[in-house]
Amino acid sequence: MASGAFTLRHCILGLLAQKPMSGYDIRRVMEKLGWLIGSPSYGSLYPALHALYDEGLVTVDVLAQAGKPDRKLYWPTEAGRRSLQDWVNQSGPADVTLKAFVMHLLLADSFSADGLIAYLLQRREQILAQQVALEASWSEADEQVGWGKSLALDYGRALASAELNWLDHVLNSLRYPLSGEESQRAKAVSPDLV
Amino acid sequence: MASGAFTLRHCILGLLAQKPMSGYDIRRVMEKLGWLIGSPSYGSLYPALHALYDEGLVTVDVLAQAGKPDRKLYWPTEAGRRSLQDWVNQSGPADVTLKAFVMHLLLADSFSADGLIAYLLQRREQILAQQVALEASWSEADEQVGWGKSLALDYGRALASAELNWLDHVLNSLRYPLSGEESQRAKAVSPDLV
DNA sequence: ATGTGCATGTAACTGGTTACATGATTCG
DNA sequence: CGAATCATGTAACCAGTTACATGCACAT
Question: Which of A49, A123, A183, B163 has its CA at a distance of 20 to 30 angstroms from the CA of residue B178?
Fold first, then answer.
């Protein structure tokens, strides 16, 4: 329950772990990251923040401001950091949505290098599986693929191969060399679409 | 309100427009498309299907089967097709999430060619804006960007540029359908479903 | 006998959005 | 003088998940 899926709680905790912020700040940051992480409404943000506080995962410091409403700066307690670390460590392939993945990247500083590499490899495995599944869906001569379906599948293929390329590139720069066979597969894809 | 965001309703309606299916079928199809569209639980699928039926947007035909439970084949009514067409036509840049975008691609057959091109151009504009926003976020020398943040931003950049490439390629092939293969696909655009 | 696939569904819950309410300050 | 930005929050609602309940057929 506390683990499992990636929710606003984790997101907030993750951002606060990098730098103390107010609810308002959190939203601004998420807005700037835009579609990568998606910004929540205050209607969910503030309640989530209060809940984290009630559970002792974050502390607050209230800064009175002239003319403006009080600015409540939140940051994780030790328990909060532990809980975040738990999430980072135990998150399996099941919950690797785009948001969760991006949050893992953002928290890269708090990984051990090995942990990050393991996580990226896991992600790589997953994308590879999806690519294979799409390819299978394509050549499924169940009946001829409609134009729309072929468009959608091709789009998926393009995204998947782009991500694989990126992953390989990053893994490489982390000096984790892949076997020749595997890395070639990912590199070969880019130029042929539709 | 009934329009706006992309929900299960639209998704179901869209899939049924391509081919009559049971709730079970719908789920299998969505599962196969995997992360592109995401498969819902039956706990949301069946109720949504019933709601569509109650509103007269889909009809059902019950096929009794030996040994197995009845198979309820659903497909859109005229009203359903109209409602779907409305969604396709009026969906603005606001709701262009990945799911919604993929659904538009899947329904490409039911667009006029011009409509599809307009939609893709809209998407292109949006991705371009996101790319710019990320770039801005990067060079924001507010303080030096942490490793995690730079990783995440770079990931976003990679995805955005991959999508732009794909969009350009598709747009190009839509405007200059030359090869035999592609002109065949171009023909497939015309039969609309309304 | 045990599990997997087919096929339907409901009830309780959760995680979010939308719309509302407040109020000072600064910019055009 | 009105709009945007800073800054907080609540209440009603909605869309989805999880867990449960049913039941037959076929393969291991």
Answer: B163
